[in-house]
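Example for tutorial group B:
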């Protein structure tokens, strides 16, 4: 059984909250681009912008802190699949945000999918993660997220 993790740092909670806000902006912007140019174009714009930003970041990182001489292990092959899942995610969210689901429904169902997949990854030790026994509260969390998603989508308030 793995050791109990350290208590949550408030700064980490704030960063997670801010990243959720950025995710919302990203989905909204991608949806607008998808509305006017199509979902494939939306994915190209998002990934082209990300590629340019990554190149600038890597060049700045290399200039500010040159890498130490040493050997690094190569990334596992599955690590390169992130670009494919990212492209599909952008296309799917760009399409669904322009339907009756709208932005909040798209994000709510996306959150439910992320939590469900993370629980499966913990349970079966996917991607090199340590296996973890799921508790009843994990199922309760999924039910509450799906319930909240359904309220957001079908609630008329």
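The residue assignment follows.
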């Amino acid at each position: 059984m793995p050791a109990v993790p350290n208590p949550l740092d408030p700064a980490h909670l704030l960063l997670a909250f801010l990243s959720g806000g950025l995710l919302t902006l990203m989905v909204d912007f991608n949806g607008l681009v998808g509305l006017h140019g199509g979902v494939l174009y939306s994915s190209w714009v998002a990934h082209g912008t990300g590629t340019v930003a990554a190149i600038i970041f890597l060049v700045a990182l290399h200039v500010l802190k040159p890498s130490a001489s040493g050997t690094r292990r190569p990334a596992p092959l599955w690590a390169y699949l992130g670009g494919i899942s990212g492209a599909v995610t952008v296309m799917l969210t760009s399409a669904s945000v322009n339907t009756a689901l709208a932005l909040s429904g798209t994000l709510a169902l996306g959150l439910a999918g992320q939590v469900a997949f993370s629980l499966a990854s913990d349970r079966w030790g996917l991607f090199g993660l340590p296996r973890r026994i799921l508790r009843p509260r994990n199922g309760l969390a999924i039910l509450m997220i799906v319930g909240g998603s359904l309220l957001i989508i079908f609630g008329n308030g």
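The mean pLDDT is 88. Compare this with the pattern of hydrophobic and polar residues in the output above.
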